[in-house]
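Researcher: Please generate the 3D structure of the following complex. Treat every line as part of one assembly.
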Amino acid sequence: MSSPSDIPMAQRKRQLVANELTEAALQLLAQRGFDAVTVDEIAAVAGVSKRTFFRYFASKEDVVVRFLADMGNGMRAELAARPAAEPPSVALRHTVAVPLAACGDHAERALPVVRLIMRTPALRARFLERQAQWRDDLSVELAARLGLEARDGAEAAAPAGLYPGLAAGMALVAFDAVLQQWSDGDGTADPAGLTDSAFAVLAASLDAVPERVVVPGAADQGRAANRTA
Amino acid sequence: MSSPSDIPMAQRKRQLVANELTEAALQLLAQRGFDAVTVDEIAAVAGVSKRTFFRYFASKEDVVVRFLADMGNGMRAELAARPAAEPPSVALRHTVAVPLAACGDHAERALPVVRLIMRTPALRARFLERQAQWRDDLSVELAARLGLEARDGAEAAAPAGLYPGLAAGMALVAFDAVLQQWSDGDGTADPAGLTDSAFAVLAASLDAVPERVVVPGAADQGRAANRTA
DNA sequence: GCCAAGTGTGTCACTCGGTGTCAATGTGTG
DNA sequence: CACACATTGACACCGAGTGACACACTTGGC
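Model: Done. Output below.
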């Protein structure tokens, strides 16, 4: 970037190639299956070389998973933006509900991709790995939100240190369960409704925040759990 | 196997090669990292050819993940063996506690492997994929245990249909969190204690079984949740 | 002892995912 | 026009994984 004016130009060209590549990839992969399509084919359809494909995507899985990757970024931002007064169950429910709702709204495009991911082992594995990353992100966001500052150096193994990770994990279990139900069906199921149902099950544990935490919205912050210091 | 008498013979030879292979693999991989070791090297150390390696393991990841794979089988069996009177939180806690305790007992061998898996993206991904499989297994086992028979044909998206998957998922979130904490530390942490702490957080939701389920052991199964049918 | 049949293994050749390198091209700046 | 910089294609290369074939080795029957 030698000058400010070529940023928009080169940037747009880059974006255009990326779109072309994802378009070709999703088309071919959804149609013929993940293993039956080579990277060379995808690149050829997009009009570029194999080498260029790998300059845009880290792996063959990446093209597909990236398509849903924005979800993760959106989630962390969404959680950070939720009012501090909300109990964890509500804040986390909205956090996962946003990308899920996006899926439901663009079912025509999202459903085939989600289905492809869910039933292709290699893609499912990469997707779960990404979810684990989201879990860590949500975990620190949640800890900060609740005033449970994780001391970076000494990571205490106390229950209070376990809660954020567990809560974030639970939220993502719900996320995954909804996605699975939705992709198993014919797309007519409502992700929002499924999300509400799932969080109705999880809410009890989500709002039982350990330690000295104040959760204004919750009627009673039972400091129940705290054994095995 | 042309005769019954060669089953023990050939079988033992097979087992011996498999052991040799895993031994060599774990040794090399834990020492030099996953990407820095080729399958040819592993096979050479074990005294066989690359081709033979792939006759025993489906992939390079498989050698490592298989080492912890028995966990999954053990879990389903353990859950099935728990007394029916136990509330889900207790039954599931024991279910995941068994393999976790096994890790703690054989820390010398298990810790390096767990560490390798947890911090190698490719291995972590495959491990999570396997956990997803366990989740499905535990889910059906749990449904059977609670009398929530999943009609195979028509998979209803009702809350009652969501619960088993969520509960199993929560148990595995705890499992994963404990494993992560344990592998991050120096191995002196007690998996059993961590497991108890984790389930103390999750218990409230785990025992809130929706619908007409009877959980004898639980003093109070708040059937709070059940909105948005 | 010899000869099937079956199984495990090594070798070779090959495909495909993924990476490093370099030369060519294009684009914006002085 | 000359210069720097970014992007690309072409090529070579490595490693994972697979298919095919030939060569052992074991086992059982004659």
